[in-house]
């Protein structure tokens, strides 16, 4: 696994699922009430797997599966966990759902396909873009927008958390 920095954009290379889990675990550990994480990438890039690993490390018990048809699933962990999949929504439909209650609440929001509703996301948020680069390999581009997310990115890089 490797982390590199390029203009506020950090590239995390996951060579296998354990590397992806390490990133998910670190982010779950630093998550605070009101955390919003946007997660994008092609079909099959690992968004739901990342969400499941994140939930596991946030202390969610039981099975976490994709909320593709329910849009939002709520779980209890160290913090409430709101797993969203907005793939099938239009911007207008998403706006009518009242997502602000989740985004500015006491829980953690992880939004799959977040680029679809980018205008609705709060200014401060973390964004991950996952790309498949091999059977088990993923390139994860991470960007922090505002506080504390920019600090999280800097700390990941500065402290060498994910360097092998």
UniProtKB/TrEMBL annotation:
Pfam families given in the database record: TsaE
Localization: Cytoplasm
Principal location: cytoplasm
Keyword vocabulary terms for this entry: ATP-binding, Cytoplasm, Magnesium, Metal-binding, Nucleotide-binding, tRNA processing
InterPro entries per record: P-loop_NTPase, T6A_TsaE
Annotated Gene3D superfamilies: P-loop containing nucleotide triphosphate hydrolases (3.40.50.300)
UniProt keyword Metal-binding, yes or no: yes
Protein family per UniProt: Belongs to the TsaE family.
The protein, known as: tRNA threonylcarbamoyladenosine biosynthesis protein TsaE
């Amino acid at each position: 696994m490797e982390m590199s920095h390029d203009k506020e954009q950090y590239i995390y290379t996951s060579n296998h699922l354990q590397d992806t889990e390490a990133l998910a675990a670190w982010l779950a550990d630093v998550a605070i009430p009101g955390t919003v994480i946007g997660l994008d990438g092609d079909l099959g890039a690992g968004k739901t797997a990342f969400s499941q690993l994140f939930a596991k490390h946030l202390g969610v018990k039981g099975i976490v599966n994709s909320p593709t048809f329910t849009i939002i699933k709520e779980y209890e962990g160290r913090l409430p966990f709101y797993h969203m999949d907005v793939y099938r929504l239009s911007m207008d439909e998403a706006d009518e759902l009242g997502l602000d209650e989740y985004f500015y609440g006491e829980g953690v929001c992880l939004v799959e396909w977040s680029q679809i509703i980018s205008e609705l996301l709060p200014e401060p948020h973390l964004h991950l873009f996952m790309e498949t680069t091999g059977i088990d390999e993923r390139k994860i581009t991470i960007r922090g927008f505002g506080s504390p997310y920019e600090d999280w990115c800097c700390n990941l890089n500065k402290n060498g958390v994910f360097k092998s």
